UniProtKB/TrEMBL annotation:
Gene from which this protein is expressed: ALDH8A1
InterPro entries documented for this protein: Ald_DH/histidinol_DH (IPR016161), Ald_DH_C (IPR016163), Ald_DH_CS_CYS (IPR016160), Ald_DH_CS_GLU (IPR029510), Ald_DH_N (IPR016162), Aldehyde_DH_dom (IPR015590)
GO molecular function: oxidoreductase activity, acting on the aldehyde or oxo group of donors, NAD or NADP as acceptor
Transmembrane segments: none
Name listed for the protein in its UniProt record: Aldehyde dehydrogenase 8 member A1
Domain Aldehyde dehydrogenase residue range list: 22-479
Pfam family, one: Aldedh
Keyword Flavoprotein belongs to the record: no
Record organism: Dissophora globulifera
Organism lineage string: Eukaryota, Fungi, Fungi incertae sedis, Mucoromycota, Mortierellomycotina
């Protein structure tokens, strides 16, 4: 079978990698190669950097209105090609196409629309100091940014970086995950069609150790926005520190989902099914540690198991499929390894744990895994402490509010948390005590792009979103005019 071959995108042109090296990427639902991806090297990164550096002086001087109008056009073009993007995202990543249709792709378009509006309407500071002078700030673009993204929400997370980066007048060298390059590739044609000048956004495809590392090491790239695993984030910090790069790190999580006995049980169960198993549990914000107040434990667990049984797993192109395939064989092995570890650590599999038996045809070779619920573990177990990043949750009963907060905070991560209660005072108390960048009360995954987003502890460094993205993607200068 002829595989789709993609190329790098540099200076608004599709160019093959300099050393003509490619690797296959797999379709997770069928476990078979479906595209050839450039295995870009340091030389390709250099070429992309040169294009981005050459484009910077012109782009950084464009008006905010000009930049915003291009961003709005990009958003409209993504919307117009939503189905094509959704199909590509699903084929490449394994997720249900319906999820890509309603979450990934529209949210990618709204990233551009939001930052177009944000840059148009944001105002810098100014202050009068009578008898001394008048000060004001000027927001300056920084230069060429390195934007490195993961495979779980490929287009959504890449555009979360590209949109504010170019809205602020920077240019970029982007590297999507080697597992999911297709929608980034489709985006290139959208950028060009929207009128983005050559060199403003360059896309270099390849591995983390190859192209990714070369971007981080490049002395001409002063800022890096990275979303991915905590171990990679740590390596990037070490490489960047002597170069004094501006870094934004959005890293892993092991998020708590705290369910109090006074919650709306139906809503807590139906939303917890989503926070546990959406996108096969491959969302950094998934609530993989479920803590339930003891009086509600049995009925919550029963509801969760019934809900998990009803989820349809298989052909990601079917509209009613709830769960697709995990992104790769390696990742499937890792997640299954954690389920085995959970059993060794004394856990009981309440539901799931295996490859579904209902798969037919080519899908039998896909990386599918049942939604899995494990009980009986203690919070010290590795299964309850390490990020699994798959459709696996642990469930544990607690007795008091203090204990729930202690359990939730007993983690080296601090990305997000959901709290389920109908008691408003408790909601405020618990939300205030939780060590996580985002706390949802009676909901999950609701996003307001004006709000800061990021993690505490090993879940990240810095915040993006709204004003915080402008802070990251620009330098603020204070200018003082004497009276
Ligand atoms: P990863 O760290 O393996 O890879 C992320 C990206 O970094 C990829 O593009 C990869 O090629 C690149 N990379 C790898 N090594 C590199 C290096 N040495 N230098 C430069 N780039 C390098 O992560 P992943 O497996 O793609 O994604 C899953 C992880 O991402 C999970 O831990 C998940 O929690 C996290 N994540 C976090 C958020 C967030 O907002 N906090 C969002 C999504 C995913």
């Amino acid at each position: 079978m002829q595989l789709l071959a993609i190329d790098n995108f540099i200076n608004n042109e599709h160019v093959p990698p300099i050393h003509d090296s490619y690797f296959d990427t797999f379709e997770p639902a069928r476990g078979a190669p479906h595209a050839k991806i450039p295995n870009s090297s340091k030389d390709d990164v250099e070429r992309a950097y040169e294009a981005a550096a050459a484009a910077f002086p012109g782009w950084s001087k464009t008006s905010r209105a000009e930049r915003a109008s291009i961003l709005y056009r990009i958003a409209d073009l993504i919307d117009a090609r939503r189905e094509e993007f959704a199909q590509a995202e699903s084929k490449d990543q394994g997720k249900p196409v319906e999820l890509a249709r309603i979450v990934d792709i529209p949210r990618a378009a709204s990233n551009f629309r939001f930052f177009a509006g944000k840059i148009l309407h944001s105002l810098e500071e100014a202050g009068d100091l009578p008898g001394v002078g008048f000060s004001y700030t000027q927001r300056m673009p920084i230069g060429v940014a390195g934007l490195i993204s993961p495979w779980n929400l490929p287009l959504y997370l890449l555009t979360w970086k590209i949109a504010p980066c170019i809205a602020c007048g920077n240019t970029a060298v982007c590297k999507p995950s080697e597992f999911t390059s297709l929608t980034a590739y489709l985006l290139c044609s959208v950028l060009k069609e929207a009128g983005l000048p050559a060199g403003v956004v360059n896309m270099v495809f390849g591995t983390g150790m190859g192209a990714g590392q070369a971007i981080v090491e490049h002395p001409g790239i002063p800022l890096i926005s990275f979303t991915g695993g905590t171990v990679t984030g740590s390596k990037i910090s070490v490489t960047s520190a002597p170069l004094f790069k501006k870094l934004s790190l959005e890293l892993g999580g092991k998020n708590a989902n705290i369910v109090f006995a006074d919650c709306d049980l139906n809503l807590a169960v139906s939303t917890s099914l989503k926070s546990s198993f959406s996108n096969q549990g491959e969302i950094c914000l998934c609530g993989s540690r479920i803590f339930v107040e003891r009086p509600l434990y049995e009925s919550f667990l029963k509801g969760l198991i019934e809900g998990a049984k009803a989820l349809k797993i298989g052909d990601p192109t079917k509209k009613d499929t709830n769960m697709g395939a995990l992104v790769s064989k390696e990742h499937w092995d890792k997640v299954v390894g954690y389920i085995e570890l959970g059993v060794q650590e004394g856990g009981k599999i309440e539901y799931g744990g295996r490859k579904p038996s209902s798969l037919e045809g080519d899908f039998k070779n896909g990386y599918f895994l049942e939604p899995t619920i494990i009980s009986g573990l203690t919070p010290a177990c590795r299964t309850m402490r390490e990020e699994i990043f798959g459709p696996v949750v642990t469930i544990y009963a607690f007795d008091t509010e203090d204990e729930a907060v202690r359990l939730a905070n007993d983690s080296e991560y601090g990305l997000s948390c959901s709290v389920w209660t109908e008691n408003g005072r408790r909601a405020r108390r618990v939300a205030g005590a939780i060590q996580a960048g985002t706390v949802w009360v009676n909901t999950w995954m609701a996003r307001d792009l004006r709000m800061p987003f990021g993690g505490m502890k090993k879940s990240g460094v810095g915040r993006e979103g709204g004003e915080h993205s402008l802070e990251f993607y620009s330098e603020l200068k204070t200018i003082c005019l004497a009276d």
